[in-house]
# Entry
Amino acid sequence: TQTESQMLSFLKSRKFNVPNILFHDSEKIIMDFIPGVTVFSALQYFYRNNQSDKIEILIECLCEGVVDFQSNTSTLANEIVELYPVRIKLEEVFQLLLLEKLDLKTQKTLIDMISNIYNQKSSVLFRDATPKNYILNGVYEKDLEYISTEELISKITWIDFSTTRYLAPPADDFASVIFHYMVEDKFRDKMLSKYNNGFDKDSLNVTIFVRWARFWVRRFYYETYNTERFGKRYTTENMNFYKTFFHRYLQIMCKML
# Structure
């Protein structure tokens, strides 16, 4: 809570659209309630209604927001020494998914390689900029049919900064924005090229793989072990998209050994 309250206060001072803090101490934080749908839900709506123009506007707006966030918090990042625990997370992923086609020795070698590359590139605060961490303030699904793009952008409110105590590669947050089934392949490639932060191919692929691992294992876990929560959180999503891309990038990781 301390990390999040400090980050909210800092971003508010930099004119980012974040909730107001009403109260906080060492154990809890109380902030303004932000009514409305998440940007992720809005992207789903526009996807169902074939409005790719609004999808692209929202995605590029979030990417530009990540640029601003990384620029404004660069001084703070210099003070952080704790890296995102990528090795632990990957061990959990491989254990949970039961990747039987990979023997344990190969899995360990993969985790070592990925973790080393990922850690070497970790230099910015880990925002976790998935579209589910933005809310369109006061906008509901019934409003999306008629809302202008200008108003849509003005309503974006940033939430959830609990992970900013970690450092991660700059490309991670851009990957978390663009790698969703609502985004067309051509536009995704365009955004990835524009915002790849000058990464070499292997480092970029490693960063993307870690993001895919987070996306897929979370959905897999809830679908397999917590069907009630899965129904609330993921039942409207294209699950095969996240599974397919995870395994595609897993193959890329294996080729890098």
In short: The first helix runs from residue 2 to 13. The chain is about 60% helix and 5% strand. The mean pLDDT is 93. Strands lie at 21-24, 29-31, 124-125, 134-136, 156-158, 167-168.
